[in-house]
Amino acid sequence: MKTPLFYHKNYVNYGFGSFHPFDPVRFSGLIDMIRSNDIMNDAIEITSAPAATDEQLLLAHSRRYIKHVEDAERDGARLSPDTPTRPGLSEAARRIVGGSLEAAKALSKHDITLNTGGLHHAGRDFGEGFCVFNDVAIAAEYLKRTGKKVCILDTDAHQGNGTMDIFWTTAEVLFISIHQHPTSLYPGKGFVNEIGRCDGEGYTVNIPLPRDANIADYHYTFEEIITPVISQFKPNVLIRNGGSDPHHSDSLTDLALDMRGLEYLGRTSRQIAAENGAGYLDLMVSGYGLRVLEGWQAILKGVLDLPIKLPTDQNIGEPGQEPRGSLRSELDKLKKYLEPFWEL
To answer: What's this model's pTM, rounded to 2 decimal places?
Structure first.
């Protein structure tokens, strides 16, 4: 059975202007890449994404915010300094949300589902960071309400502040974000002491990485924190979100994964889901610069175990090598915060 990838031609309307770093050509480019590669085309089924309704958006957003988006688009206003609106943007955002929701529903028939989503900076009452509606949170909330234990593993180079805020006080969703250190990158959140509050205390895990973190640092972090915490939580569904922006060539970030590292993220995340008997939903919209689609291809190679060649790249680091000392120190601090909640 092919793995469904949800898509609609209107995804390409999810853009912010000619000189904005988020290039919507990525959406149609991915479809072209899949259809032109026999191995990928045989493994992936392009499936239509509907537009999310207001009731579905209300799973993670307020009615007031939904109206604010509509008003902003009508008036040509901005949701934030980095997130302008333009005609067709909100409908495209609803399509992306609809794609992630359908991917969540399709886990009843598939072990793995895909969408080019991951708009994780949008909060309940705000949009920012190129994100209008938070499809990650909406899909997770839908699954939660159907009785699933959901783990969100956010591997975007930017910390998922909107998703974190939405699930800040619940123990029903485990949110883990591994990202560039917030002292050096937007959104300036995701320090090790941010672990949730009330019932959700301990169910938010933030892992800040030093600049130039490579595959050795990621491997160490998975071994020390991510894999054991998820194994103790025992999710029914694992949602991974994050695209190519941890790659060393990314134009907005300073991490140093190579293409092997992006494949590692996809493969390891999928393996963790399989080891826990969890369904796996992959959302990979992010990435900036010239190698976004190559990075997505590397992620898909890992997630789907595709026998395709990785794009040519400079290899940086090796899994199992010693991580840098600053990362060890940061993870030691994190373990102290998590000690009351998880065995690490």
So the answer is: 0.98
